[in-house]
Automatic annotation (TrEMBL), chain A:
Coiled coil: none
Membrane topology summary: Multi-pass membrane protein
Record keywords, A-Z: Cell membrane, Membrane, Transmembrane, Transmembrane helix, Transport
GO cellular component: plasma membrane
Residue stretches spanning the membrane: 21-39, 148-171, 192-216, 228-249, 261-278, 318-336
Keyword ATP-binding: no
Name of the molecule in the record: ABC transporter permease
GO molecular function, one term: ABC-type transporter activity
UniProt cross-references to PROSITE patterns, sorted A to Z: ABC_TM2 (PS51012)
Domain ABC transmembrane type-2: 113-339
Taxonomy of the source species: Bacteria, Bacillati, Bacillota, Bacilli, Bacillales
TrEMBL record, chain B:
Source organism, top-level taxon: Bacteria
InterPro entries, A to Z: AAA+_ATPase, ABC_transporter-like_ATP-bd, ABC_transporter-like_CS, P-loop_NTPase
Residue ranges constituting the ABC transporter domain according to the UniProt record: 8-235
Keywords: ATP-binding, Nucleotide-binding
Name listed for the protein in its UniProt record: ABC transporter ATP-binding protein
Coiled coil: none
Source organism of the structure: Domibacillus aminovorans
Length: 342, 241
């Protein structure tokens, strides 16, 4: 009953504040669209070097859609590769082809490998030995691309906006004195926290559905698994964002100080979310990952969206996220003791 | 006083924030059905004291009893109406939505809720502005809406922290009429103020300065004892000026 009152009030406030509602729904859509356009723009034309490739083979290769440079020996090609004159080069060692890639830009890697593989197809015919071996100068195997980091970004934007808005709205509750007013009523402390989680939870459900549906069906983000799992993960992630936002708002005195938490609490989570290769993070920093909610959400979202996995693969992440939310909720209830002892 | 039953009993209450002592050994009895004024300059500790009575704070030492029960207690909180110094209202919502929200917290619903909302808004002369957004309210209107919210659940004890700040004299008069009406119904009112002429309207007064209760009595008694013509002069005598 009292929780219902709180939930209705929160929903009314959100609906009244059109701009904030717009921020929650359209800002992620706008950013995702822009990323989609940036990363899935025109196909990149790879710059490929041929190192001492026999004339008959070159004749068979379709050299359109790529800029070809021919080299007399591998040393020259390597120099051009280092100075990024070419993206990669093809060389035949003992009749088997090998690709050497510059490797720092995943989009470029993908394009170069794809082109070489297509180009070598007519040669392959019945000879499987012609399957090229891929080597990198920098970086590692294929990473990035909208499909691959899309799920992470989806989770991140929901986390970011819910964190900020829930934190600010609870902060306002405190600074305008309405929190004190609430605590002078018979409302229990756990009811306040639960009311907030449910009120924002309902709204986040709508927000997550719209954003995820837009990303998957309009932007054509890769989606191998079940939509409901995506929603479940995003909802649980937003619960952690919500409860963490409320918790941190008690350490902020105004909206600006709430925004100061973004570079400290929100942005670093990106680094451990798998947007960058986790194995390449230096060891003295990588232990942070398992303490950030986005780490689990991104893993689960990727399992569902990219790998098409189901419950068996994501349940651990789901329970960790749930654990984070419950932990933050309990700390919140304890923190409210500062304002009323009982 | 016709009634002699103590409704609020403050016993040897002291409060410390870090090194700063805000309340020093306050003992005070407030009777049922009276309007008790807490008079003192800002920073004297009035708000700290009434917050404790509303269950929002606890004393460092000493005890507060309301209706013979020790504060803080969730059961007691339902019997207390509290109006804070700041207007704790949701600006994005209309007055009615604010009232609906707070009345639901006290378990009022349906017809009863609607009826109470109409009654309290009439009492503070805001019936015509029920559907307006609170962000469009003037300062005085917000003050009155805060008062209306504190009255919603018909509390036995009403604690009002500076209820008439920023309200013009005509309205102030009508608000005091409402206070007297509530008092006649048996409600106990505790009002803090730093306005001396407002203090005259209380049944009894407690004068607070630097966290100490320096005098208690009816306005007449306080003036007679100090041979002063005004409450302000009496305050100066008790304050040691």
């Amino acid at each position: 009953m009292r929780i219902t009152a709180l939930v209705i009030r929160i929903l009314r406030q959100i609906v009244r504040d059109k701009r904030t509602m717009g921020l929650l729904i359209f800002a992620p859509i706008l950013v995702l669209t822009m990323l989609h356009l940036v990363f899935n723009g025109n196909d990149y034309t790879p710059k490929i070097g041929f190192v001492h490739i026999p004339e008959p083979i070159v004749d068979q290769i379709d050299v359109s859609d790529a800029k070809i440079t021919e080299y007399k020996n591998e040393k020259e090609a390597k120099e051009d590769l280092s100075s990024q004159e070419i993206d990669g080069y093809l060389v035949f060692n003992n009749q088997s082809p090998a690709i050497f890639l510059e490797g720092s830009d995943p989009t470029v890697n993908g394009a170069a490998i794809k082109w070489i593989q297509t180009a070598l197809k007519p040669l392959q015919g019945n000879d499987t030995a012609l399957e090229p071996k891929v080597n990198f100068l920098h970086g590692s195997a294929e990473m990035g691309q909208f499909d691959y980091f899309g799920p992470v970004l989806l989770g991140f934007f929901v986390f970011f906006f819910v964190f900020l808005i829930a934190g600010v709205s609870f902060l306002r509750e405190r600074t305008t004195g309405t929190l004190e007013r609430l605590l002078s009523t018979p409302l229990r402390k756990w009811e306040i926290v639960t009311g907030y989680v449910l009120g924002f939870g309902i709204f986040t459900m709508i927000q997550a559905t719209i954003i995820a549906a837009y990303a998957i069906y309009v932007l054509d983000m890769l989606m191998e698994g079940a939509f409901l799992y995506v929603l479940l993960i995003i909802l649980l992630l937003s619960f952690t964002a919500l409860t963490l936002g409320i918790l941190l708002s008690s350490f902020a005195n105004n909206e600006l100080q709430m925004i100061q938490f973004i570079p400290i609490v929100v942005v670093p989570q990106i680094f451990f979310s798998g947007l960058f290769n986790l194995e390449t993070i230096s060891e003295w920093l990588s232990w942070i990952g398992p303490f950030t909610p986005l780490y689990y959400a991104a893993d689960a979202l990727r399992d569902v969206m990219v790998r098409g996995y189901g419950w068996d693969e994501i349940y651990r992440d789901v329970f960790v996220l749930l654990g984070f939310s419950i932990l933050f909720m309990i700390i919140n209830i304890l923190a409210l003791k500062k304002y009323r002892k009982i | 006083m016709e009634t002699t039953k103590a409704c609020v009993s403050i016993r040897h209450v002291s409060k410390q924030f870090g090194k700063q002592q805000v309340l020093k050994e306050i003992s005070l009895e407030i009777m049922e059905g009276e309007i008790f004024g807490l008079l003192g300059p800002s920073g004297a500790g009035k708000t700290t004291l009434v917050k404790q009575l509303a269950g929002l704070d606890t004393p460092t030492s000493g005890e507060n009893f309301l209706l013979q029960e020790k504060m803080p207690s969730l059961k007691l909180i339902e019997k207390v109406g509290y109006m804070a110094q700041s207007d704790a209202l949701y600006g994005e919502l209309s007055a009615k939505e604010n009232l609906q929200f707070f009345s639901a917290l006290y378990g009022l619903k349906g017809k009863q809720q609607q009826q109470r909302i109409e009654e309290v808004m009439k009492l503070v002369h805001l019936s015509d502005h029920l559907h307006k957004l609170v962000s469009n309210y003037s300062g005085g209107m917000k003050r009155r809406l805060s008062l209306a919210i504190a009255l919603l659940h018909e509390p036995e004890i009403l604690i009002l922290d500076e209820p008439t700040v920023g309200i013009d004299p005509v309205l102030r008069k009508s608000i005091w009429e409402a206070f007297n009406e509530l008092k006649n119904k048996g409600t106990t009112l505790i009002v803090t103020t730093h306005v001396m002429d407002e203090a005259e309207k209380c049944d009894r007064l407690g004068m607070i300065r630097d966290g100490r209760l320096i005098a208690v009595g009816t306005p007449e008694e306080l003036k007679q004892k100090t041979n002063s013509a005004t409450i302000e002069a009496a305050f100066l005598v008790y304050g040691g000026a």
